[in-house]
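Need tokens for this chain, all 371 residues.
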Amino acid sequence: MKRTLLVALVLVFTISLFAYAQDDGGYRIPNPVERPEVITMKGLDGDEPGWFTDLYFTAEELEQIRAMNLRIAYEMPNQSEFSEAVLRGLQDACDILNIKIVGLAYCENDPALQKINMENFAALGVDFIISQAQEVDMAAATYDALKEAGIKLVFQANVPTGYKAGVDYVAVAATDYHQYGILAADALAEAIGYEGKVAIIYLASVNQVSNTRDRAFVNRIKTAYPNIQLVEEAGIEAPPDTSAVASALLTRHPDLDGLHVTFAEPATEALEVVRSLGKKNLKMSTVDFNSMVALDMIQDGNICAIIVDRPYLLGHMMATMVGYGALGKELESSTYMGPIVSVSPENIEEEWLAGFGQELPRELKRALERR
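Here are the structure tokens for all 371 residues:
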């Protein structure tokens, strides 16, 4: 039997807290933020990246898209609160653009499962597929058949090696992944007093997003903090590997001062190990929100820093890219980016709303009130 994770779209989506329409009847992505002066990462085609506020539709273009009755499928890279927020933004934007999401799946960063999901999507007769390519050096074998079938592609963060925007895919929604690693390293260094021993649990499989963020963290620690020793870089292939890797790492380095974990889901696994060993003074940093790491940070636990982008915004960006592809409207860049923020208890309410498109969960609000 094929392992398939297509799920029914009988979902309840949170009512959006943002306004989308322009005064002239057109459409722009909500909650605009100015482009930063410096973006350290190039677009995925090696070009200058665009900023999400560059994407828009006039009133006439909006009506043209709505009249097309487009059908799309979306594959989430994993089951997480981050992916749910991307989906929430995608759905809200699709409602505005009259685009129907007819296929939904997740692949847990598994390229074999991704291939099955793409085959299932193709069978639905969709106009566009949105996904994050896994194991990018091998991913073209999965996506070439979709192109041959006339299905247009929009990517979240990763694209297959060798693919070019405007030829093989419409565009990719991303963020400046170098900055994630830099901000995480800076925050962890500050939390341990700029001296001591740190380690990283990184994603060993080929995933440009995590690989770039992880390398940036390592490079920042090694080049900016001479009194901090990076004692080990321990790899995982997928989040379920984390508990065993973290346990072994902490056994080898019982005097560790700081630990960075590649993203929130494995960080949650590592946090459980750290707690079980009673390491209350070990400081941890990670990337992306989930409720557990956020609660730990609010309660002044082990998590000292969470570096986030705005997944709700990514969903809007990708829906807008579908519209561009359907219209044949020219894009100036292969890659469009949104903001990255270092989260603290002081700004978590604002960033959760901007990032997830919904209010901070009640449990986290109560924890903030008790600080």
